[in-house]
Write a structure and sequence with these properties.
Layout: H1 46-69, E1 84-85, E2 94-95
Antiparallel strand pairs: 1-2
């Protein structure tokens, strides 16, 4: 892949799906331009779609982990419901 044909540096992994969509390109425009580390080829809904898929996968993982370990899926209770622990043994691995 020739970098000159890509709209941004972050677009190099677009074909494999390993890129991260640029949040600014479709709104007010990206100030970083071609040196942006985020993908300028992803569509307007891509970031939202990926976030939704990630949350669904995390929910399934938490449910499987809590069933296996025998703890509630919201253990320990999180303030304002913004963070959820993957496993009560590892408070450093947070989702959210």
């Amino acid at each position: 892949v020739t970098l000159g044909l890509l709209p941004s540096v972050g677009s190099i992994d677009h074909r494999t799906g390993n890129c991260k969509p640029c949040a600014f390109i479709l709104k007010e425009g990206c100030r970083s331009g071609s040196s942006c580390k985020f993908c300028h080829l992803c569509g307007p809904e891509e970031k939202k779609r990926r976030k939704k898929a990630w949350k669904a996968q995390a929910t399934m993982y938490r449910a499987a982990t809590s069933a296996r370990v025998g703890i509630p899926s919201t253990y320990p209770p999180s303030p304002r419901g913004t963070r959820t622990y993957i496993c009560h043994y590892s408070p450093h691995m947070l989702l959210g």
